[in-house]
Each structure stands twice: as C-alpha cells, then as structure tokens.
Amino acid sequence: MKSFKTSIIAFLIVCTVIFLLSACNKEEDKPKVKHGEVTSQLSPVLSIQQRNDGIDVLAVLENHSNHTVTLSFNRSKMFDVAILDSSRKEVFRHSKGKNYEKKREDVHIKAGASHIWKTKWKISAENNKAGIYTVKATFLPNKIAPGSLSTESLTVEETLTLQGGSEEKKNDTFRKIHVSGKDGTYKVSGEARVFEGSFAYSVSDGHDVFIEKNKQIEKGGPDWAPFSFEVKIPEDDLPINGTLMLELFYYSPKNGEKADILAVPLQSFK
After folding, report:
1. SS3 annotation, the chain
2. Strand order across the 174-182 sheet
3. Which residues make beta-bridge pairs with 158?
C-alpha cells in the first residue's frame, strides 16, 4: 500500500514538472516587447480627387489601436506631399516655397479615429498633362506615444492617372492618336514628327512598365508622318483595379530624358 502511494506521488510530481516546463516554453515563444514600445498602430492613407482647378490630396493617418496615439512635432511642418511624373520628375511639392516655424505641437488621434492634412496641386483642366503620376505623402513627427517611430510606417504612395485636358492639341510631336482594342490587345495609330523619324513608346499601370520600344516612321521632322503599332499585354499582367497607360515620347539628344510625353489611356479595369 505504501509503495502504491509512493507511485501516485511520483506520478503527480512528474505531471507537475511537465506542466511547468510547458508553461515556460510558451512564455519563451511570446515575442519580447521592450518597455514603452507597441507594434504598428497607425495606417497612412491617401485620398486623391481631381477637380476643375487641380488635384486635391488628403494625407490621412488612421489610428487602428484601442488607445489614443499622440504625435509630437518640433516644427510646423507636420507632413509633405510630392507628385512625380512617369520619368520620376517632381512636378509638385507641398512644402516648396513655404516657411515653417520651429515650435512644439501635439496631435492626438483617438482610438478608431483619424487625422487629415490637406494640400492642392493647382492646375487648370485645360493645362493638366495626361499621364500616370506617383503621389507620395510623408508624415514628420519626431515622437509617437505610446510606441516609437521605428515601429511605424509613416509614408504612403498612390498612383494618379490624369486623362488630360487639351494637352494633345499642344503637343508638338504627336497628334491624331486613335486607340482600339481591349483586354490586353490594342492597336494604336496617329501621326508624329520627330528627328530622324524615331520615337519611343511604353505601356505601364503606374507601377510596372510592361513594354518600352522604339518606333521608326517614314519621315523625320518637320514633316508629319503616320504610324501604327500593336500592343499586347499578357492576361496575367493586366491590372485588377487600375488603368493601362500608353506614353508616346522621344529621348532628348541634349540630356537623354523623355521629351514631349503624350499619355493616352488604353483601358481602365475595375
């Protein structure tokens, strides 16, 4: 009987030891978080709207945590927005020409709420240049509480597709552009006048360039000459939600950069 009780006690001790070891292992598996640090809690968002007098950009920080987040700034420049064209040339910057004060200011974003900053790229409907642009917003706090700057992603990019106003009429290199086709297969025709009858074209969705080719036509400038070509994009590369954009241009002999860009939408996908 004594031996049986001893066996029971030994069994219970073994079970207790196994349980404690298992609990310790689970504690070790938990990610170690430094004091005062939290995982990413802010989500940057861009809202872009095309108006008759330009492009409205709303730069937003959304608080997805269950507590208030405080952003501290050491100057009045709290954010910046840059817009770049397809050749990565900057066409707009919110902070350009502005004077900012050095002063401490806090922005409190409650749980589930957001804070909005606004800017505008002022261009008239007649003068906007068709094409695919990259809009990038950067938020500039020097401190976040609770948490740390290293845990947050404070930049966001979106694609802006401008259909253009009367840009084609003002383009000195390309005119009478006609596009037909759909779902990855398109035929493009028009007229061009370029040095030695050579120009280039590309097709992209604002993120990836699917085609970039050179095209030779019969006559060089100053005469206008007809051209036509086919564009074929594999079905797997077609955007799920976006616009396929064709760009016609030539490379400047002076600096090698794209010149006289004319952007033409091929097809929008939704």
Report:
1. CHHHHHHHHHHHHHHHHHHHHHHHHHHHHCCCCCCCCCCCCEEEEEEEEEECCEEEEEEEEEECCCCCEEEEECCCCCEEEEEECCCCCEEEECCCCCCCCCCCEEEEECCCCEEEEEEEEECCCCCCCCEEEEEEEEECCCEEECCCHHHCCCEEEEEEEECCCCHHHHCCCEEEEEEEEECCEEEEEEEECCHHHEEEEEEECCCCEEEEEEEECCCCCCCCEEEEEEEECCHHHCCCCEEEEEEEEEECCCCCCEEEEEEEEEEEEC
2. 174-182, 185-192, 225-232
3. 135
* CB-based contact 91:133 (threshold 8 Å): yes
pLDDT greater at residue 88 or residue 105: 105
Residue 92 structure tokens: 């707009």
Predicted confidence (pLDDT) at residue 6 exceeds the cutoff of 90: no
**Does 143 score more than 70 pLDDT?**
yes
- Residue 233 CA to residue 65 CA, distance in Å, equals 42
**What is the pLDDT, as a whole number, of residue 172?**
86
Overall average pLDDT of the 92-103 stretch = 94
Q: Closest Cα to residue 67, out of 134, 146, 143, 173?
A: 146
Report yes or no: 64 and 117 within 8 Å, Cβ to Cβ.
no
pLDDT computed for residue 39 by the predictor = 57
pLDDT of 45-63, one tens digit each? 988 877 778 888 999 999 9
Average pLDDT over residues 80-91: 89
